[in-house]
């Protein structure tokens, strides 16, 4: 089921980083996310609910801005 909150997400297994783009256009990377948590998000019926209860405010994160994309930082 498509999420009304999360537009897309990508998980980097090697770095354990979860990259999330919200429907608002804001993008964040969450660090130290275990593989099983990312897999559960992928399989969750309500991705926004799962994200809010299991990921948001539980892992270090930072917002990715347009400027950071262009400079690669």
What does this structure look like?
- The chain is α+β, with helices and mostly antiparallel strands.
- It has one domain (6-71).
- It is built from three helices and four strands, in the order E-E-E-H-H-E-H.
- It has helices spanning 35-43, 47-54, 66-71, and strands spanning 6-12, 17-22, 27-31, 61-64.
- A four-stranded antiparallel sheet has the order 1-2-3-4.
- The mean pLDDT is 91.
SSE diagram, text form:
Blueprint: E1 6-12, E2 17-22, E3 27-31, H1 35-43, H2 47-54, E4 61-64, H3 66-71
Antiparallel strand pairs: 1-2, 2-3, 3-4
Quick summary of this structure?
The protein is an alpha+beta fold.
Query: How much is the radius of gyration in Å?
Result: 12 Å
| Low-confidence segments | none
For the secondary structure, the number of strands is: 4
Query: What about the largest sheet?
Result: 4 strands, antiparallel
Which key features would you list for this structure?
single chain; 73 residues; 4 strands; globular
